[in-house]
TrEMBL record:
Keyword Transmembrane: yes
Membrane spanning stretches: 232-254
Claim: Repeat is one of the keywords in the record: yes
Main location group: membrane
One Pfam family of this chain: LRR_1
Subcellular location per the Swiss-Prot or TrEMBL entry: Membrane
Taxonomic superkingdom: Eukaryota
Bilayer disposition of the protein: Single-pass type I membrane protein
GO cellular component labels: membrane
Name of the protein in its database record: Uncharacterized protein
Amino acid sequence: MTKWSNLKYLSLAGNSFSGTLPSWLLTFGSIQMIDLSGNKFFGFIPDGNFNGSLNFNDGDIVRRMPTEPVDASHNVEIKMSLLVVDGNELNFGYRLSSSVGIDLSDNMLHGQIPSGLFGLQGLEYLNLSYNFLDGQVLGLEKMWNLRTLDLSHNSLWGQIPGNISSLKNLTLLNFSYNSFSGFISKEEGYWRFPGAFIGNPGLCVESSDGRCNAASLPAVPGKSFDEMDGPISVWIFCVSAFVSFYFSVITLFCSSRARNYVLQTKF
């Protein structure tokens, strides 16, 4: 297979292939789409030569629309799902004839995501969801052609890269169900991606009114958003104290031994 220098589309999706990913996976010179999703591959994502594919690396590549209708057999269908805040699952389907992407989702891959993968300037679609990947997500500023990024359902941690909002072509983002932490300012423009960060207990997404998203817990040094300040907390304390005192008195006089002790002490 490594001798297929003109290979453009490689799809082995939805099978039961297992084993580790080969080191030559991303070295095809003309490769445009790799889809190995829905298998049983394990181990690490190869941290090898990411410079093999011109399509993956050329950020200035011009993909012209075909002058005649594209045969359906040459189309590439991409599907992804995004769970939004209200619990509804939105399914997005794409039928693309010229997209450049990598889909390794729904496998058993673990370890860190190679930094070279985040430096592919020509990549438009990257889906690594439903694996066991960990580590931090490094800067994505070089991936200016990126349109879809799905890293959901992994064990990634650390802060969300602050430069994602600068990716003007990005239309779908999903970082849900990981272990990200920190504070995301509303100025970052992440409101464009509803539900993209749910399932990260240590992550605080600032809402339009300046408060932390109630669905997440913050991890900002010196600031705790789960504590209640002001008159509300004082009122709760007073009610709690009164209820405790009331039940203590009732319990005391319902006990004959305690009642006799109080009466003997008084008289």
